[in-house]
Write a structure and sequence with these properties.
Blueprint lengths: L1 H19 L3 H8 L3 H11 L9 E4 L5 H9 L5 E5 L2 H12 L7 E5 L12 E7 L8 H11 E12 L5 H23 L2 H12 L4 H10 L2 E9 L4 E8 L2
Parallel strand pairs: 1-2, 1-4, 2-3, 4-5
Antiparallel strand pairs: 5-7, 6-7
Helix pairs in contact: 3-4, 7-8
The structure holds S-adenosylmethionine.
């Protein structure tokens, strides 16, 4: 039964991102009121990559967080992985027209079964990916497996503000405005009805911290951005 739910969610999420791949970047900027770039910059700054270190960006999509990482860490090799070929095609098209993104390698694959050996990366990032995973616990076990001891894991995710009035306003904007504008621009109303649902049903930042700790990640720091509309988790793998 549980297996079926996971398979359903995997197929559904892949179909959603295939449907919106062409307009994903535009819609993301509009719907976060342009904050997405600043949030990704902040997340990239938390990776603390030294020259020559290797980073992995999971659920890389159109590669925006991977680009921030690449620009911040000139010359450091970065691997981006995603299971939606439509999103990776958009990333590839952007990278060929920008010489500064040469160090990013794109891989088609599943976060729940990462095709990399243990202890490979100095840092792993996840940008707006967690909500979409069919199994967050397994995702963090896989991420913790491929990051080196003392390596960093940084996740940026959309969340619900914690204070009541802001939370109500946020709920209204998500349920009425986001699904409507997103649906109109992307041509897929269903895909953007999924966004508010996925934020509503997502575990609290404190619960995400526990899941990270259970997977072997430590020193988990929670940073709320823009009144809690987004949250960054920063963690380190134990020795
Ligand atoms: C909201 S987009 C985020 C894209 C990008 N990281 C960003 O910062 O905008 C979520 C991405 O997660 C990918 N995804 C969801 N589940 C996945 C999985 N199990 N394995 C690989 N990619 C996955 C989707 O295909 C989609 O491209």
């Amino acid at each position: 039964m549980f297996g079926d739910i996971k398979e359903d969610k995997t197929a559904y999420v892949r179909a959603v991102f295939t449907a919106i791949a062409d307009r994903y970047d535009l819609i993301n900027s509009l719907l976060t009121l342009g904050r997405d770039g600043a949030w990704r910059r902040f997340a990239a700054s938390k990776c603390r990559i030294s020259p020559g270190e290797l980073a992995l960006d999971v659920a890389t999509g159109t590669g925006e967080l991977a680009r921030h990482l690449s620009r911040r860490n000139h010359g450091s090799p970065i691997v981006g992985i995603d299971f939606c070929s439509g999103m990776l095609l958009k990333a590839r098209a952007k990278f060929v027209s920008s010489s500064s993104d040469n160090a990013i390698e794109l891989v088609l694959g599943d976060v729940l079964q990462l095709p990399f050996p243990d202890n490979t990366f100095d840092c792993v990032t996840i940008g707006f990916g967690l909500r979409n995973f069919a199994d967050i616990d397994t995702a963090f076990y896989e991420i913790a497996r491929v990051v080196k001891p003392r390596g960093r894991v940084v996740s940026l995710e959309l969340t619900r503000p914690s204070s009541s009035p802001v939370r109500e306003l946020h709920k209204f904007v998500l349920s009425r405005i986001v699904s409507c504008i997103g649906g109109l621009i992307s041509g897929s109303k269903e895909a953007y009805a999924y966004l508010p649902d996925s934020i509503r049903g997502f575990p609290s930042p404190e619960r995400v911290k526990e899941i990270m700790e259970n997977a072997g990640l430590h020193e988990v720091e929670i940073r709320r951005l823009t009144l809690g509309a987004a949250t960054v988790h920063v963690a380190t793998k134990g020795d």
